[in-house]
Specification:
By secondary structure, this protein is an all-alpha fold. It has a domain of 30 residues. It contains two helices and no strands.
Length: 63
């Protein structure tokens, strides 16, 4: 679901859409910029992938 949201943000930014519906926080806040939201979401996705990889590695490790 996060990947779909990232794609929607990228598509909106590429089309030059202004994303100030209030969904991303108050107007003028640090995360009100589409680029900041995109960066935050990419970092969340990378963190989830690292966590998932660590959990799978731990599960495959033989003691």
């Amino acid at each position: 679901m996060l990947c779909g949201f990232i794609l929607a943000i990228v598509q909106g930014l590429a089309r030059g859409l202004e994303m100030n519906c209030g969904c991303f926080g108050e107007t003028g806040s640090v995360l009100s910029s589409g680029w900041m939201v995109l960066g935050r979401d990419v970092l969340l996705l990378m963190s989830a992938c690292v966590l998932l990889g660590a959990l799978q590695w731990k599960g495959n490790r033989v003691n």
